[in-house]
Amino acid sequence: MIKIFRHTIIHLKIKKMKKSFYLVAMLLILSVSAFTQKWSDLSKEEKLMKLQNFIEDNHKYMKDSLALSEEQITDADNVNVCYLTTLDRINRYAKTDANKEKYAKSATESRAKQLEAIMGSDKYKKFKRYVEAKLKKAAAQM
């Protein structure tokens, strides 16, 4: 009975994390200005498909190319969710653009350090280049 309960809790956490990661991926995609202009022209179904592909590709790259464990992938997803919620709070509560920029820079540096700790320095650098190239390609296509 305890195993079933534990399995159910784990399953619910995974579902919640996937939803959170969809939000993270969407915000990352929306952060590229050229991409956001065309993003608004897409239907909900098209957005969802692009988002799902983005997430699947990133997870596949992390698993296959970087050989990260499921736990590392989950931890990286959680760092990204935390980062984006932090940026949202900064945007809501920081009074000036200068403060927003200062706090966002600090949050971005913290996120980078956390991801580097999870992935290791070399794998983090490879992943960063991979995502940057992917976003650049997406922006060029839009």
Q: Which percent band covers the strand fraction?
A: under 5%
Low-confidence stretches: 32-37
The helix-and-strand class reads mainly alpha
Number of domains: 1
- The radius of gyration is 17 Å
Give the overall shape, derived from the CA principal axes.
Answer: globular
Average of pLDDT:
79
Order of helices and strands: HHHHHH
Q: What distance separates the N and C termini? A: 51 Å
Topology:
Layout: H1 2-30, H2 33-39, H3 44-65, H4 70-93, H5 97-119, H6 121-141
Helix pairs in contact: 1-3, 1-4, 2-6, 4-5, 5-6
Describe this entry's structure for a reader.
- The protein has 142 residues and is an all-alpha fold.
- It has one domain (16-141).
- 89% of the residues lie in helices and 0% in strands.
- The chain has six helices and no strands.
- α1 (2-30) packs across α3 and α2 packs across α6 (121-141).
- The longest helix has 29 residues, at 2-30.
- The protein is globular.
- The N and C termini lie far apart (51 Å).
